[in-house]
Sequence to fold (832 residues):
Amino acid sequence: MSTAERESTLENRLLRRIQGLIGQAPIQLEFDQEKIGPPDPTKNESVVIRDRRTLAHMVLDPELGFGDGYMQGRIEINGNLVNILEQVFRSMRSSGKRSWYGRLFSNWLQHMQGNTRGGSAANIHHHYDLNTDFYKLWLDSHLVYTCAYFPTHSATLEEAQKAKLEHVCRKLRLQPGERVVDAGCGWGALALHMARHYGVSVQAFNISHEQIQYARAQARREGLTDQVTFVEDDYRNISGRFDAFVSVGMLEHIGREHYGELGRVLQRTIGNSGRGLMHFIGRNRPAPFSTWIRKRIFPGAYVPALREALEIFERQNYSVLDVENLRLHYAKTLEHWLARYERSVESVSSMFGPEFVRAWRLYLAGSIASFRTGMLQLFQVVFAGSACRQIPWTRAYLYTESARLENESQWTPARS
Amino acid sequence: MSTAERESTLENRLLRRIQGLIGQAPIQLEFDQEKIGPPDPTKNESVVIRDRRTLAHMVLDPELGFGDGYMQGRIEINGNLVNILEQVFRSMRSSGKRSWYGRLFSNWLQHMQGNTRGGSAANIHHHYDLNTDFYKLWLDSHLVYTCAYFPTHSATLEEAQKAKLEHVCRKLRLQPGERVVDAGCGWGALALHMARHYGVSVQAFNISHEQIQYARAQARREGLTDQVTFVEDDYRNISGRFDAFVSVGMLEHIGREHYGELGRVLQRTIGNSGRGLMHFIGRNRPAPFSTWIRKRIFPGAYVPALREALEIFERQNYSVLDVENLRLHYAKTLEHWLARYERSVESVSSMFGPEFVRAWRLYLAGSIASFRTGMLQLFQVVFAGSACRQIPWTRAYLYTESARLENESQWTPARS
Fold:
C-alpha cells in the first residue's frame, strides 16, 4: 500500500466517523477526492471539508468543528445551509451523542461564562453591544430581537413584531395607570409600546449600554420619558412594587443556577397580587445549549426545559395560567431575518469581516433548523399570584375584539 | 377553681389551638358556652363543635377532624359552608402547617391506597361504582364528571360541558378517520362526542365496571359501536397505535409513582408522530392531597404540581404546545353541581343516608373553595411528538370559526 493510499484510507475512516456522529442524514461528505454518504438524487447537497485539521476537529467535536470550520471558510456547503442543518438535526435527534471532547469543552465554557453580575455584563456586552447599525440591517424597524407572532403566514416581519408586542400586552391585561417592570428590555420596543398604547408606566432594565442608550433616545423622541424609565442595571437590582412583570428573551441569558434569584425578584416586585409573562427559548428536556453558539454567539446562554423554567414560578407559589409554544413562529421570524441579512452581507462584511458574516449566517440558519425540528421551542408563560384579580375568564379575548370587550365587562372576582 | 371552670378553660384552650391551626379566618368557633374568634359583624358565621371527641380530633388534625366531624353531624355550620371554607383556605395558605398526626395519617393513607393494578381497581370502585342514578341527580345529562368550559358566565352546565368536549376536540385537531385512545373515559361522553362529530374511531378505557356498562349502552343506543370500543381495562394495558391520546380527569387517580408508566403508554400508542391532551387537577407546587378527601371520597388520589405532570412529557421528548388553566371554570362547574345536589338531597339521603349527604356536600363545597382560592388548579396540556404534523399555527382557530377554517387551509408542514 502506498503512502497516498494509506492516507486516503485514514481520511475515509475519519469521514465515516463524522458520518456516524451526525447520524443518517442524506448529506454527502467530501474531503479531497473522498466522498461518502448517500448522494441525494434530486438535490446533490454536500459538505466539503477543505483541510485535515478541520476533519480531525469534526471527529473530536462535530458541532464545534463544523461551526468553526464553516465560520473560517474551511468548510463549504453545496446546497441550502438551512436544509442541510435541518436534515442533520433530525437525524441527530435519534442518534446524536456528544463525544467526550464535546462534553469537556461544553463544561469548560459553562464554567468560564458564569452569570455572576460581572459575568453577565461581559456576556451581554459580547452580543448586544455590537453596534446598533448592524442590527438595523436585518431586524424590523423597531429592533425587536425576539420571536415575532405572525397572525397569518403572509404577515410581514414588521406586522408580526407589532402583533407580538400586542399579544404580550393583551396576555398581561394591562390597565391604564398600572406599573410594569420589563426585565431585559432590548432596544425598548415593548416598554414603549406598553406606554404608548396601554397608558402604563414602565421601568425597563437592561445591562447592554448600547441598547439602553438607543432606548432612551427613542423615549425622548416619542415624548414618553415621563412614562418609561430605562435603567442600565442587572435584573437582580430591580426594586419597587409593580402590578405586572414582563420579560421577553432574558431567561436564556441568566443561567439556570440563578433562577432562584429571579424568582425572589418576582416576589418582591409583584408579590402575591401581581401577574407576569415570561417569553423564552426552551426545550422539551434538559440539555446543554449548543457549544458553538455559546462560544461564538451567546456566551453564558442556557436554554431550559419548560419544566426547569416552571421551577421559578413553583417556588414562589405562582399559578401558571397559560403556556403557548410559538416555535414555528420563531422559525419564520428567523427566515425573515436571514433573508434580510443575506441582502446586507456586503455591509456586514465591511463592518466585521467575512468570518463574522459566515458565523452569523450559520447562527441564523442553525436556529431556523433548530426551531423547525423541535430541538428548540419558544414558550410564552403567563403566571399570577393567588390574590391576582386579572385572571381572564377565557382566552377568547386574545383573538376576537368582541370577546375582548365582553370579557372585560364580565369580569367579576370569584369571591362572593 | 371549680371543676367546671377548669374544664371550661381546657376547652377554651383547645378552641384557641384550633384557631391557631386554621389561621386568621374571621370565623367564630363555638363549643358549649365557649365562643372564640372575631365575630363577623355582617354575617355572624360560625362553626359549632358538638362534642369533646371532635374538639380533640380537630386539634390533632384540623382537616380530618373537621371533615369527619361535619360528616357525622358533630360539627354544625351557621352560615355559608363554601364561604367559610374559602376564608379558612385563604388564611391557611399563609399559616397552615400540618400537625405530626396529620402528616402521619396522610402517609399511612398513601401507603394503604397504592395504585398497583389491584389497588387502582379498588380505589376507582370506591368512587365511580356508586350507582349511576346517584350521579344523574346532579351531573349534566351526558354525565360529564370533570371541569366544564363556560364560554360565557351565563352558559348552562349542559352548554358548558358540551363546550368543554368541543374545546378538547378542537385542541386535538381531530381529522376524520383518525384513531384516538381515551384513557379514563368516565361514562363515555367524550369518546361518543369525538366519534359523532369528528368521524374518528375511539378506543376508550376505564376500570369502573358501572361506567363502562353505561357507556356501552349509550354507544349501542346511538349506533356508534363500530366507531367506539369501550374497554374495561387499566390504562397500563392500552395497546395498538393511535393518532391522538386524550385523558380527561384520570391523571389525579394514577399516583405520581406511576407517571413513568403512563409516559411509556403514550410513547407506544402515539409514538413520535402523534399528539395528545391531558386534562387534570393540578397545583402550583407539590403537596399531599387533602387527607379527608382521600379517606372518604377519592382513595389513592394525588394532585400534581404542573411541573411534576410535565415530567411525563419531558421523559418521552414530547413538546408541550399549550397549557390552559381553567381553575375558575372548575369552581363554577362545582357551583352548578352543588346547587343541583342540594335540590336532590332527599333522594341522596334515601339512597345512602344522611352521613353520605353531608360528606359529599363537604367535598363539593370544599372543592369550590379550593379552586376559588388557587389551592387547586385545572390544567389542560396539549403535547406532540417532534414528527407531529398537526401543530396549529396560532390558537385563533379555537375561538373563531373563520380563523379555524383559515388555519386549516394555511397549514403546511414546516419542512421545505
Observations:
- The CA atoms of residues 85 and 366 of chain B lie 6 Å apart.
- Residues 405-416 of chain B have pLDDT under 50 and may be disordered.
- Chain B touches chain A through 53 residues (CB under 8 Å).
- Residues 117-410 of chain B form a domain with the Rossmann fold fold (CATH 3.40.50.150).
